[in-house]
Amino acid sequence: MSLMSVSEVAEYLGVQEIRVERLERESLLVSKDKDAEGKPLFDKDDVQRYKEFAERIGGI
């Protein structure tokens, strides 16, 4: 399992970091761990699946 930070996910999805934090808060992206600052870390495979799903339903 490869973990991605909020900033890495934001860059990958092409959105702002605040949007990634909101997706996590709304349980649309589920974090697997927390970093030293308490920010969520996401599984790369989950992020890729979310992006594919979001694109199919009309965008992120």
UniProtKB/TrEMBL annotation:
InterPro entries xref list: DNA-bd_dom_put_sf, MerR-type_HTH_dom
Name the UniProt record assigns to this protein: Helix-turn-helix domain-containing protein
Q: Name one GO molecular function term.
A: DNA binding
- Please name the Gene3D superfamilies in this protein's record: 1.10.1660.10
Q: What processes in GO biological process is this protein linked to?
A: regulation of DNA-templated transcription
Q: Organism source for this protein?
A: Bowmanella dokdonensis
Q: Read off the Pfam families from this record.
A: MerR_1 (PF13411)
Q: Where is the HTH merR-type domain?
A: 4-49
Q: Which domain of life is it from?
A: Bacteria
